[in-house]
Amino acid sequence: MNILLVYAHPEPQSLNGSLKDFAVRHLEASGHHVQVSDLYAMRWKPTLDADDSLAPRGAERFDPSADSKHAFDNGLQSPDIAAEQAKLLWADAVILQFPLWWFSLPAILKGWVDRVYACGFAYGVGEHSDARWGERYGEGTLAGKRAMLVVTTGGWDSHYGPRGINGPIDDLLFPIQHGILYYPGFDVLPPFVAYRTGRTDAARYAALCEQLGERLDTLFSTAPIAFRRQNGGAYEIPALTLRPEIAPQRTGFAAHIQRPDEARGDSGERR
């Protein structure tokens, strides 16, 4: 299978760098084809601006969505953007690997998303009407592909537990997993998270590699997170709120994930 690893850490000799190298070796030894987008090594430009088009659309002011769509539709995208989009279309699975900095992605990786997820490629896709609000959240250009986060953090796992001071890790990663990955269609796997990275000795590193290897071995068999499909019947359109009978006691992030007891079809989602 084809696997794209998008990697965001400035130090090759870091734990992140070592885990990235391990992942590439492990995947290739298993027969997969791997491409790596090492954003710092590539000196990736993180800012979305008018220079992302080879020829501006002639408007008086820069409009991020309109200019992005004009460039995408007319083959005028900056070559680095087009190259990353080609990698995404090539890949059967995508891994985003990064350290959790200030509760989110490193800026360079967020900038990769801002520029590569062009209008017409990752959003602004499909019919927008009172019946459908575009092909997104389970549909879209990247539907049928898998994605997984590999995340490192200096905090303890208890800091990111249900009552931990940093907030539950699943909540912190929800905007990335649901918004950045599920939105354009990826089936999103549970994340691989390495905690307390500053305390990693040789024995712990070996254990992390073993655990990561097991996750990579099941990249195409692990059940994805059961996010609700936007056009699956659970949401009222065009309001895009859950129908009253869907998870009526739940709000927030958890309401948008289907529980196992709903899998019988009583969730209101068409299958």
Automatic annotation (TrEMBL):
Query: One Pfam annotation, family name?
Result: Flavodoxin_2
GO MF: NAD(P)H dehydrogenase (quinone) activity
For the Flavodoxin-like fold domain, which residue ranges apply? 1-214
Taxonomically, which superkingdom? Bacteria
Residue segments, region Disordered: 251-271
- Regions of compositional bias (Basic and acidic residues) in chain numbering: 258-271
Sorted alphabetically, the Gene Ontology cellular component annotations on this record are: cytosol
Which terms are listed as keywords in the entry?
Oxidoreductase
Transmembrane region(s):
none
Q: Belongs to which family?
A: Belongs to the NAD(P)H dehydrogenase (quinone) family.
What is the recorded name of this protein?
NAD(P)H dehydrogenase (Quinone)
